[in-house]
């Protein structure tokens, strides 16, 4: 579909796309029609791409109205803020910090919420206000509380909601604390990702209530979890599909530069050389990263690419004690590895990958999460099967990746 066809399609065309995908159901269609997306998208945006996390260059409604309209009515996310509002353009900032979520994701999560008229709902992350408007239309604005940490975003969302005819309780605050004054709630939904379920979200939900949130480990991979809250204050439920959201601000992590791991020395510093049969390409898909991440705690990857198509996969731990590099060269069957520190991070990844393969390469929907007084545990298929990993690496011929000097890299 070209720009002019999307211009003609507008909200109706987007609705047809969403219904064709099964994301927008007939019970949510009246809310979609009552509060169209374009009412809640700012004039300056950075259009994204469905299924990816890349943003196009800035589009300004006043200068490119057709491109703006087409972006709004495409089933793709739209970045609306960079660097917590410190960057405004031109071009793109460093880290996207607010967005209008992909419509498929919006309605898929609302469907998972199983919300009914009269339910009291807490939303974490007001953003542009569109999700709060959809909920307000469905359950009544008097039953919706929405919390936003960014004052500017909250102010703009409150204005858009009022213009649409809705006045839910819009609170400026830290979403990790929920909003006890408005509870207890029948439903809680987060439009930002988390690595730990805030205790307040569970305690402020009625027994039998539901919490829907994007959850992901430090390593990468993320999925929407649907938790049912029990009378004893615990919560458990399955993951219902992959997701990619911006992190709850209170749970953001600060990642150190690779030089911090090398102690100021040139690569490979104190790293121990080895080889691996497992290709770095085999551990980069989103669902695989999720399965690895729930077994390899507090570690994260980063890829350093080279012009010839080869790359180095870096692994680092959050404690800044351990690191690993794995060199990928196209056409090779085994790859050079260096590991430093008390943890052997690549060995942990290999073990996690072998565990995943040994259980039939389970997709997101086979995993679940339990939250209780002991913390939280990811499980496979049933709550009595907590995730753990085993595995080994097989030897074989090695490809070596030549390195340019100096080996200490400038990228984080």
From TrEMBL:
<comment type="similarity">
    <text>Belongs to the methyltransferase superfamily. L-isoaspartyl/D-aspartyl protein methyltransferase family.</text>
</comment>
<dbReference type="InterPro" id="IPR029063">
    <property type="entry name" value="SAM-dependent_MTases_sf"/>
</dbReference>
<dbReference type="Pfam" id="PF01135">
    <property type="entry name" value="PCMT"/>
</dbReference>
<keyword id="KW-0949">S-adenosyl-L-methionine</keyword>
<keyword id="KW-0808">Transferase</keyword>
<protein>
    <recommendedName>
        <fullName>Protein-L-isoaspartate O-methyltransferase</fullName>
        <ecNumber>2.1.1.77</ecNumber>
    </recommendedName>
</protein>
<dbReference type="GO" id="GO:0032259">
    <property type="term" value="P:methylation"/>
</dbReference>
<dbReference type="GO" id="GO:0004719">
    <property type="term" value="F:protein-L-isoaspartate (D-aspartate) O-methyltransferase activity"/>
</dbReference>
<feature type="region of interest" description="Disordered">
    <location>
        <begin position="80"/>
        <end position="100"/>
    </location>
</feature>
<keyword id="KW-0963">Cytoplasm</keyword>
<dbReference type="InterPro" id="IPR000682">
    <property type="entry name" value="PCMT"/>
</dbReference>
<keyword id="KW-0489">Methyltransferase</keyword>
């Amino acid at each position: 579909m070209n720009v002019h066809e999307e211009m003609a399609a507008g909200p109706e065309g987007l609705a047809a796309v969403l219904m064709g995908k099964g994301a927008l159901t007939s019970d949510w269609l009246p809310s979609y029609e009552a509060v169209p997306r374009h009412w809640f998208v700012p004039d300056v945006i950075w259009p994204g791409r469905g299924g990816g996390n890349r943003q196009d260059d800035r589009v300004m409604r006043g200068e490119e109205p057709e491109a703006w309209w087409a972006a709004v009515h495409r089933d793709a996310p739209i970045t609306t803020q960079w660097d917590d509002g410190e960057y405004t353009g031109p071009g793109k900032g460093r880290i996207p910090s607010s967005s209008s979520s992909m419509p498929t994701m919006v309605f898929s999560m609302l469907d998972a919420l199983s919300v009914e008229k009269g339910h009291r709902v807490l939303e974490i992350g007001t953003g542009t206000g569109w999700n709060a408007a959809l909920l307000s239309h469905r359950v009544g604005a008097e039953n919706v509380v929405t919390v936003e940490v960014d004052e500017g975003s909250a102010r703009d969302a409150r204005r858009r909601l009022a213009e649409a005819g809705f006045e839910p309780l819009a609170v400026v605050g830290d979403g990790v604390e929920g909003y006890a004054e408005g509870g207890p709630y029948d439903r809680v939904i987060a439009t930002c990702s988390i690595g730990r379920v805030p205790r307040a979200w569970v305690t402020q939900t009625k027994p039998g209530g539901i919490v829907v949130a994007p959850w992901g480990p430090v390593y990468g991979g993320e999925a929407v979890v649907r938790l049912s809250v029990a009378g004893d204050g615990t919560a458990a439920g399955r993951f219902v599909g992959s997701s990619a959201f911006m992190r709850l601000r209170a749970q953001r992590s600060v990642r150190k530069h690779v030089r911090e791991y090398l102690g100021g020395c040139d690569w490979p510093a104190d790293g121990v050389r080895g080889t691996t049969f497992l290709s770095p390409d085999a551990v980069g898909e989103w669902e695989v990263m999720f399965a690895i991440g729930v077994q390899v705690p507090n570690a994260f990857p980063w890829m350093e690419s080279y012009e010839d198509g080869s790359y180095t996969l870096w692994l680092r731990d959050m404690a800044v004690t351990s690191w690993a590099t794995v060199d990928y060269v196209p056409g090779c069957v085994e790859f050079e590895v260096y590991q430093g520190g008390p943890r052997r991070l690549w060995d942990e990844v290999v073990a996690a990958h072998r565990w995943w393969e040994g259980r039939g390469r389970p997709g997101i929907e086979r995993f679940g999460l339990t939250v209780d007084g002991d913390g939280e545990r990811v499980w496979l298929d049933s709550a009595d099967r907590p995730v753990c990993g085993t595995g080994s690496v097989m030897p074989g011929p090695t490809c070596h990746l030549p390195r340019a000097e100096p080996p200490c890299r400038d990228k984080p």
